[in-house]
Amino acid sequence: MPIQKRCTVVGMTRLNPTTYWMVLEVGKMVEELGLRAGQFLHVACGEGNLLRRPISVALAYPDEPEDTAALIFEVKGEGTRWLSRRQAGDQVDVIGPLGNGFAVEQGGRYLLVGGGIGVPPLLGYGECFQKNAVAVLGFRSADRVILADRFQACCEEVYLCTDDGSAGRHGFVDAQVRDILEKDQSFTAVLACGPRPMLKNVAAAAAEFGVPCQVSMEERMACGVGACLGCAIQMADGTMKHVCKDGPVFDAEEVDWNV
Amino acid sequence: MSEREKRFDCPEAAGGPVCTPEPERARISGSETVRPEKKSFAVDQSVTLAGVCMKNPVVVASGTFGFGREYGQFYDLSELGGICCKGLTLHRREGNPPPRIAETPMGILNSVGLQNPGVDAFIEHELPELRKHELAVIANISGSTPEEYGVMCGKLSAAGVDLIEVNISCPNVKAGGLAYGTRPELAAEVTAVAKAHAGTVPVMVKLSPNVTDITEIARAAADAGADALSLINTLRGMRIDVRTRRPILRMNTGGLSGPAVLPVAVRMVWEVHQAVDLPILGMGGVSKGEDAAQLMLAGASAVAVGTACFADPYAPVRVRDGLAELAEEQGLARVAQLTGGVLPW
After folding, report:
1. Pick among 3.40.50.2000, 3.40.50.80, 3.20.20.70, 3.10.450.50: CATH of A110-215
2. ipTM above 0.90, yes or no
3. Which of A95, A171, A218, B248 has the most CB within a 10 Å radius?
4. Mean residue pLDDT across chain B
């Protein structure tokens, strides 16, 4: 059950010129409401912006005196610019926990696939699997790379890809995913988060090798709680589901990728 | 390094120590759960809309509040005067393809397109849930033919809703919808059919602002037997991404709501209140008590809060309290005394 909370910023770090790592004190949202990575908080971004911004939770830890959650976001417009100017000690108004997060099981082995700002929500999973995950991280170029060291520290292996070849493998993550799955299909599932074309290709690669795939999707959102039906995603069976309430994580197979 | 610092340490962070928690500053407040404080008022907040008594004049607008389940997680729906339920059609509808939402200056555009489970599913699954709370249940219906409106009114009347809001003004569907709301003779026909099938349940016709003269449509609905009017629905609008040159909405255009439309709503309520002798549910951009008071002074008997819920789930409760506070400040015995009280120049 979500609540509305004014949370204090306890950490604010710039990871690259447009990406920020914000740590919030979230009361007992982790222990009592089960907030976890892959879910999102709906964050009010200043007076002039009517709508909240849905921001994925990268890490969530029970803590004293309050639980903490890390939100890693990219400055894309006025709202996120406002958010990037918050400092430790400031407060932000959030609604959460919202959304479902990835469905994972204890002892499972996972292939984490992230693209750009889709990388952060996977971090909490990498850290929780303790070396039982392989990560494929894609970025536009070397100067956009974030969190690679954190994934290195917690994953069995990390493959870096960049669109321009300035770091890691030259090309998109789905080619790397194909190479990995070709040799090793022993993953419990592929967990992917990133832009829609990337998710579509990763889903196709996973399907090719018979490995289940979950994708975390984005859509323009208003209420965040399932009331307004704004953030619709078309399903393969012709129905609509909603990113805020049914997602953001969906089984890749249920999504209609051809729209 | 403390445990907390280690958890949020990022070696690649650009320059300086990373994620430095500033415990002294941060400890000033920690986090606090947001809830409006419970207030009690001496002023009588009850109102009557087309014979339906509500304990306060604040209802939530159709399409912004689902069937109450989501926001019911934040507070008891009995806090509200009533709920205009998500727009229903005779059969289930999946609605329009995404993107369906675009933010605009002090407003939002939507093109949801009446996604809903259909009138029968509403009666079976949603109405019994809503009946567990004390609030007026207002069913909102759209049809693609007058007959469809009639069938739905028959079903809803038998199921026992408090009021039927006949939507003749949805800008997001191709058949029916807006066409009925922009032509007086069609508005009259739909109103008459709805009335003929609604039995004892009062019928409120929801008007479109996308017309040259809203009083024409208001008069047509009134003459055809409407028991109340609600206005305004959203204003048609458009937003374009200048880089891709694509409209943000997949349907190109959508309906504008939010604070940006409040002055239009106030003006139209005022015009309609002068033109016809029917109670009005006023809506459009209400996010605080003062906004609601403006609509009531212009002639509304009750007000609906919609888009404001997206930013603040408690908006309807705050509007209710703000309105009561304002009425008390003005020494009124009843909030309802605001209705029609504007003193035009």
Report:
1. 3.40.50.80
2. yes
3. A95
4. 91
